[in-house]
Amino acid sequence: MPGTQPKDEALDNALLAALPVNEYEKIRTALEPVSLAQGEALWEVEELRQYLYFPTTAMIALLHETDGGASTGIGIVGRDGVVGLEVFMEEAKAAERAVVQQEGVAYRMRSKDVKSEFGECGDFQEILLCYTQVMLAQVTQTAICNRLHSVEQQLCRWLLTNCHDQKTNTFSMTHDQISTFLGVRRETVSLAAAELQNRSIIEYSRGKITILDQEALEAAACQCYGEVKERFDQLMSKYESLHAA
């Protein structure tokens, strides 16, 4: 249609989309789109965090390194979140590594720009602090899940998170990648995935996973996925009600 404005794809990120128009326009020039490849590390242990990343189609795994050198996931960030909280929470260390789990696009913002706008834009500051609470809840819930729930339940939680953040029931992921995030052996993941496939909940072939029955998947999962999602919805609802005007 003549005169139609092209879509601003940065607004596919829920946090950016929730900002009031005047504040979003103020930070928009500082947002740079970047294509992220699967397996790419955004940072390694002890590296300075130079950017804040707002994923739109990419998904990023936050990993903790054990004393033995193994990795385990403490959080997943997609279109509902932001990666790099340490940019404005300098004493915090949410993760030792951030690795791209699903290739795609994110919009990044230099740390100097984040700090500048963080002090000048009250809504930008508040929404990032709100999300920090969500991430802390996710990290805590993941620790509880890893300790108390079966690998099958953890796998179901992981699949539901991917389904929600990618807006699709089909995505590519190997058992090696899943085992790294869950912190368990590949064979253990294979057995759990095979059980879900035998029950016609998922279909897995050549690194591609398709969710066939989401209701059954939710029933097979533990409550951790729902609790983190509910926490996000509560905080975002609070923010939107405060700034709807």
Average predicted confidence as pLDDT: 84
Shape: globular
| Distance between the first and last residues' Cα | 30 Å
Number of strand elements: 10
Structural notes for this entry:
The chain has 245 residues and is of the alpha+beta class. The chain has helices spanning 14-18, 21-28, 111-120, 122-148, 151-166, 175-182, 186-198, 214-220, 224-243; strands spanning 32-36, 41-43, 51-55, 59-65, 71-77, 97-102, 104-110, 170-172, 202-205, 208-211. The strands form three sheets. The chain has a four-stranded antiparallel beta sheet with strand order 2-6-4-5. Strands 1-7-3 form a three-stranded antiparallel beta sheet. Strands 8-10-9 form a three-stranded antiparallel beta sheet. Helix 4 (122-148) runs antiparallel to helix 9, helix 5 (151-166) crosses helix 8 (214-220) and helix 6 packs across helix 7 (186-198). It is globular.
Descriptive tags:
single chain, 245 residues, alpha+beta, three-stranded antiparallel beta sheet, 9 helices, globular
Quick structural gist:
The protein has 245 residues and is α+β, with helices and mostly antiparallel strands.
Fold topology:
Blueprint: H1 14-18, H2 21-28, E1 32-36, E2 41-43, E3 51-55, E4 59-65, E5 71-77, E6 97-102, E7 104-110, H3 111-120, H4 122-148, H5 151-166, E8 170-172, H6 175-182, H7 186-198, E9 202-205, E10 208-211, H8 214-220, H9 224-243
Antiparallel strand pairs: 1-7, 2-6, 3-7, 4-5, 4-6, 8-10, 9-10
Helix pairs in contact: 4-9, 5-8, 6-7
